[in-house]
TrEMBL record:
It is a multi-pass membrane protein. InterPro entries: MetI-like, MetI-like_sf, Phosphate_PstC, Phosphate_Transport_Permease. It is found in: Cell membrane. Residues 85-311 form the ABC transmembrane type-1 domain. Residues 1-22 are annotated as: Disordered. This is Phosphate transport system permease protein. The lineage of its organism: Bacteria, Bacillati, Actinomycetota, Actinomycetes, Streptosporangiales. Belongs to the binding-protein-dependent transport system permease family. CysTW subfamily. It comes from Nonomuraea monospora. PANTHER family: PHOSPHATE TRANSPORT SYSTEM PERMEASE PROTEIN PST, PHOSPHATE TRANSPORT SYSTEM PERMEASE PROTEIN PSTC.
Length: 326
């Protein structure tokens, strides 16, 4: 039944019937629920597939799953999941340490320092970096970055070799953990910068204007009004970038030398990761070998899932940011 209401000029107006307004609510609710259930079903199907394919390799393995995984009768190829997981986590953390300060600085410059005519093109340029294929980053790292890092790596080893990360004997430089971490940092920088920029732009303008009215400089205003508000968003952006770095395949497969060691020495060629090992070994592995690689993929799946769940948890802790559309 129609309802009579008053318009701005005092005349009668007729609203849409309630039955007509609610006609599209049920289909929309059904589609939204179906989308959420489908997403959960896809994730569950991926987990079931990884577990079912990994079980034969785990049953055939006679050694410890984390320290030594053997899938061939003559034990011609052995590696531990722990070594690959260590390389994955270490390279991703190094990339995060390198990328986060730069990304936050870029986001603050675009949101609060750059002129409007410069901020928009610079924001588009940062966003376009995320669209560059990972194989391009990998080729750039192999052809340009790896030779460029030889001299700095030698200097770091000679002058800061007392620190475990820069220690090492023998070959210094080349396809190292440092080179892979720098490439990963460049790849995740657009993700962290884009999310941080949007968070900083959502900071309450009244707080910023109040800080400036009290005599604060622009940096003091950012430190008091922008960074506290955007801290949860920056943390979640960094964790999303961390998950992206852990799952990267082609770029690190081109750079890492495919060794199976647990070492904190980032200047020596002894790096590897789960994703790179799967890409390098899947084609030549037998059935049990593929199951072993899928088992390592299951470990990567769990690590990445935990990282993204932690990021979601950090976002939800700040209600203002969640209401802003996170």
């Amino acid at each position: 039944m129609a309802t009579n209401v008053q318009t701005r000029d005092g005349g009668p107006a007729t609203s849409r019937p309630a039955s007509r307004r609610s006609r599209g609510e049920a289909p929309f609710r059904f589609l939204s629920t179906a989308a959420g259930v489908t997403l959960l079903a896809i994730m569950a199907a991926i987990a079931v597939f990884l577990i079912s394919e990994a079980i034969p390799a785990l049953q055939a393995n006679k050694a410890n799953f984390f320290s030594e995984l053997t899938w061939e009768p003559n034990a011609s190829r052995e590696f531990g999941i722990a070594a690959l997981a260590f390389g994955t986590v270490l390279s991703s953390l190094l990339a995060l340490i390198i990328a986060t300060p730069i990304a936050v600085g870029v986001a603050l410059f675009i949101s609060h320092y750059a002129p409007r005519k410069l901020a928009a093109p610079l924001g588009y340029l940062i966003d376009l970096l995320a669209a560059v294929p990972s194989v391009v980053y990998g080729l750039w790292g192999v052809a340009f970055l790896v030779p460029l890092l030889r001299t700095p790596s030698q200097w770091l080893n000679e002058n800061l070799g007392w620190f475990p990360l820069f220690a090492g004997d023998g070959i210094i430089g080349g396809k190292t953990m440092l080179a892979g971490a720098i490439v990963l940092a460049i790849m995740i920088l657009p993700i962290i910068a884009a999310i941080s920029r949007e968070v900083f732009l959502q900071a309450p303008k009244m707080n910023e204007e109040a800080a400036l009215a009290l005599g604060a400089t622009r940096w003091e205003m950012i430190r008091m009004a922008v960074l506290p508000f955007g801290r949860p968003g920056v943390i979640s952006a960094a964790m999303l970038g961390l998950g992206r770095a852990m799952g990267e395949t082609i770029a690190v497969a081109l750079i890492f030398p495919a060794t199976f060691e647990i070492s904190f020495q980032i200047l020596t060629p002894n790096a590897n990761s789960i994703a790179a090992n799967i890409a390098n070994g899947f084609a030549e592995a037998n059935d049990i070998g593929r199951g072993a690689l899928i088992a390592s993929g299951l470990v990567l799946f769990i690590i990445t899932l935990l990282v993204n769940m932690a990021a979601r948890f950090v976002i939800n802790r700040r209600k203002e940011y969640a209401r802003a559309g996170a």
